[in-house]
Amino acid sequence: MDDDNAVPSRVTEPFRFAYDAPTLRCGRHSAGELGEELAARGLERALVVSGQTVGSTPAVIDPVRSGLDERLAGVFAETTAEKRLATAAAGAERVRELDADCIVALGGGSSLDAAKQVSVLAARAAAADDDPATAYDAAGTELAETGTLTVPETVVPIVAVPTTLAGADVSQGGGVTATPEGGLVGESVSGGLSDAALLPAAVVADSALFATTPDDVLAASAMNGFDKGIETLYASTATPVTDATAIRGLSLYQDGLLAFGDGIREPWVFDALARGSLLVQYGISRPDAGTLSLIHSLSHGLTRGQPIQQGTAHGIVAPHALNYLFEHVDGRRDLLADALGMADADDTADAITTAVADVRDALGLPTRLRDVDGPEPDEFPAVAEAVLADGFMANVPADLNPTSEGIKAVLAAAW
């Protein structure tokens, strides 16, 4: 055999991995080390940004308050699932009023996304020559015109303390909406922002905090995070670094989620979930690349303008998306099978899809689109077009050529 062909080309091809990773702290009661983490960065006054429930639940907020100690400047517990720009403007005003020099983003994906908006608006207001309100108005105008916000070179540093498993913490992007009621836009707008400056300076994954999250909320968020690891392995932008972290992260995630689904609430379960969550996120959101792909684009298409939750959409569509993937390309099924403990299966593609469905079923998530409040079959052509236009589709395997008919077939199978 010719030496050049002795191993698969994927093993020998060159790669570039550019990633300014946040500091990762992971462990039971690690929220108690928040003050130490801020001190290491010379940060002295933190504004905690969270939702109302998290901010008023002693089991969640008290460890954070205690961990920050004298570095706690205040709490802004007003974020919502809508991630509204007007809410972020109010948060930015709190940053200014309290002279906070950093933000501790506490909660699920919505609060972490909102904290990124607060960081951007606070930095823009600080740079404004006159009333900071003009900076907020300008942000509303820009969002309405472009669907995004310009991120200043220097923003208010964020330390993320996640309480769900959606995987928004080791990320440089986030969603944003605005409505006329907020006073910053003339019509409802939905968009997003992304910039390397928004990657948190540190992430503190306290498994004890995950254990305080209601079971249904944690389960709904888990499928989103789990699929990040799945997609990272077959993305065209995968690297040996993200392969390694995704494989180990998926293994931990799978063990933790199956045990969670069986009703086991022992500390090791939440420890496995915290570690798995961090590992599948590592390196997936980079300045020059990302690894989210087909499943996430399908989820975006299904949830656009619909009340269906992201994790629910993931659970329903992921097995069908994988069937479509494996029908057309290899999808690096050997690595996925290794990660999910299916390497010895006769049909690895079928075994992988079954393993993903088993996780979904263990979490008690819906299995069919017809059973949730989402798009109807007559809307599938529009959903397919939205999926194909989604930015994450740029990361599908290079030899996969998604078509509208193919995406509609996936949606029909999920119905």
Automatic annotation (TrEMBL):
<dbReference type="InterPro" id="IPR056798">
    <property type="entry name" value="ADH_Fe_C"/>
</dbReference>
<feature type="domain" description="Alcohol dehydrogenase iron-type/glycerol dehydrogenase GldA">
    <location>
        <begin position="23"/>
        <end position="206"/>
    </location>
</feature>
<dbReference type="GO" id="GO:0046872">
    <property type="term" value="F:metal ion binding"/>
</dbReference>
<dbReference type="InterPro" id="IPR001670">
    <property type="entry name" value="ADH_Fe/GldA"/>
</dbReference>
<dbReference type="GO" id="GO:0004022">
    <property type="term" value="F:alcohol dehydrogenase (NAD+) activity"/>
</dbReference>
<dbReference type="InterPro" id="IPR039697">
    <property type="entry name" value="Alcohol_dehydrogenase_Fe"/>
</dbReference>
<keyword id="KW-0560">Oxidoreductase</keyword>
<dbReference type="Pfam" id="PF25137">
    <property type="entry name" value="ADH_Fe_C"/>
</dbReference>
<protein>
    <submittedName>
        <fullName>Alcohol dehydrogenase</fullName>
    </submittedName>
</protein>
<feature type="domain" description="Fe-containing alcohol dehydrogenase-like C-terminal">
    <location>
        <begin position="219"/>
        <end position="415"/>
    </location>
</feature>
<dbReference type="Pfam" id="PF00465">
    <property type="entry name" value="Fe-ADH"/>
</dbReference>
